[in-house]
Amino acid sequence: MNTGLEDFVSPIWIVASSPISVGDLLGFATGIACVLLAARAHIWNFPMGIANSAILALVFYQTRLFGDMTLQGVFLALSVQGWLEWGRLPGAAQAPPENAKKSDHLWGIVVTLIAALGIRQILVQAGGAAPWPDAFITASSLWAQWLLNRKSIACWPWWIAVDLVSVPLYWSRHLPLIAALYVVFLALCLQGWSRWKRLLSEPATSIGEVG
Question: Exposed e or buried b for every residue in 103-126, given b needs 16+ CB within 10 A?
Answer without folding.
Answer: ebeeebeeebeebbeebbeebeee
